[in-house]
Design brief:
By secondary structure, the chain is of the alpha+beta class. Helix content is about 30%, strand content about 30%. A hairpin with a 2-residue loop joins strand 6 and strand 7. The structure holds guanosine-5'-diphosphate. Guanosine-5'-diphosphate binds next to helix 1.
Length: about 350
């Protein structure tokens, strides 16, 4: 690479899927909450639609399981809206917008209809994933070890408690096998590309969350580093999470940017109901930290954001934009080429949706 190359590694984008009530929201809340209670300012950054957890914070939460010096990926970006509906509408270049996923399965309930649906989507999109076998703390006789890595906690349980948890875990491993995935308890997995790691966790006590973060980081670093390589100064590329009316701004787009950089004043092309929308960014907005509900101003303006990040785009003419559609910054390439790229990507998404 030449000296003035601006290639860099971005944060992997993580999605959380699973059956209703299996603990997706609680797990995300736990990850955000533990990160914040690690104390330091900048422990996490709340984006529009996503939460960024920098490598240093991941390491603080995961202890010995994640050593900063072993990684050069900058952290993890969690999409805040869990569920496979949002996952399957969020695409990038024909693949899934998320680079990696957490499939949450209640240890007591095992696979349920939406677990099966989520598995199908993960298979179809070829998205690497880990299974969080959640609610381990509800195992009869469980002795909780808040925020601990799961292996020492598991080893320290009574034989009875461990046996009951094992029964549930092996049932899930069997269900994964029925679905065509070879899986095992994560501490037995040698090759995470070939085998799915099952991590017992509790979104309530935080047990197993260090392990979950360690496996996400490890998987991303080992198998997805090339995909995380981006041209930091290049034209921004993103996917619309949601089209939202905001007072004072009209229709806005909540977007996850997965490549390049996006700036105030940029011309963008966005997938629309009938045809691509060409417009100019009036403002880029992030949630204002600690904004009180009744405070008038909920957003801070930022001049630019680089991948991977969530951001709100305020611009004219966004009424017909659609969730899941591509967003492209027009910088050095002809406008017609960008419009064509957006059109063909949109056509691909529509075909997929009709298939479902
Ligand atoms: P979602 O529908 O998948 O987002 O599930 P929620 O996060 O809303 O959780 C559903 C219910 O399970 C809530 O009452 C949570 O408090 C509870 N729950 C989630 N995770 C755990 C856990 O690890 N342990 C226990 N005991 N309860 C949990």
């Amino acid at each position: 690479m030449s000296d003035n190359s601006s290639s860099s590694l971005r944060t992997p984008i993580v999605a959380v899927l699973g059956h209703v009530d299996h603990g997706k929201t609680s797990l995300l809340d736990k990850i955000r909450g533990s990160a914040v209670s690690e104390g330091e300012a900048g422990a996490i950054t709340q984006h529009i639609g996503a939460t960024a957890v920098p490598l240093e914070t991941v390491s603080e939460m995961a202890g010995d399981l994640v050593k900063v010096e072993d990684f050069d990926l900058p952290g993890l970006l969690f999409i805040d809206t869990p569920g496979h509906h949002s996952f399957s509408t969020l695409r990038s270049r024909g693949g899934a917008l998320a680079d990696i996923a957490i499939l949450v399965v209640d240890v007591n309930d095992g696979f349920q209809p939406q677990t099966e649906e989520a598995i199908d989507i993960l298979r179809r999109t070829g998205t690497p994933f880990v299974v969080a076998a959640n609610k381990a703390d509800t195992t009869p006789g469980w002795n909780p070890n808040p925020d601990s890595p799961i292996k020492p906690s598991y080893d320290g349980q009574s034989d009875n408690a461990r046996k009951r948890l094992d029964e549930n875990l092996y049932r899930i491993i069997g269900e994964l096998s029925d679905a065509g995935f070879s899986a095992d308890l994560y501490w037995r997995v040698q090759n995470f590309q070939r085998n799915i790691g099952v991590i017992p966790v509790s979104a309530l006590t935080g047990e197993g969350v260090p392990d979950l973060l360690a496996v996400l980081m490890g998987l991303s670093q080992r198998f997805m580093k090339e995909e995380m390589e981006i041209d930091v100064g290049g034209p921004g590329k993103g996917t619309v999470l949601e089209v939202k009316e905001e007072r004072g701004f009209g229709s806005t787009l909540d977007v996850v940017v997965y490549d390049g950089i996006i700036r105030e004043g940029d011309t963008i092309v966005v997938g629309g109901k009938d045809e691509p929308i060409v417009t100019e960014i009036r403002a880029l907005l992030q949630p204002r930290p600690n904004a009180e509900i009744r405070v008038e101003k909920r957003f801070d303006r930022v001049e630019e954001v680089g991948a991977a990040a969530g951001v709100k785009i305020a611009a004219p003419d966004l009424d017909d934009a659609i969730a899941g559609a591509p967003v492209r910054v027009v910088r050095d390439q002809p406008l017609a080429d960008v419009i064509e790229a957006v059109e063909s990507e949109l056509a691909e998404i529509e075909v997929e949706t009709e298939d479902n």
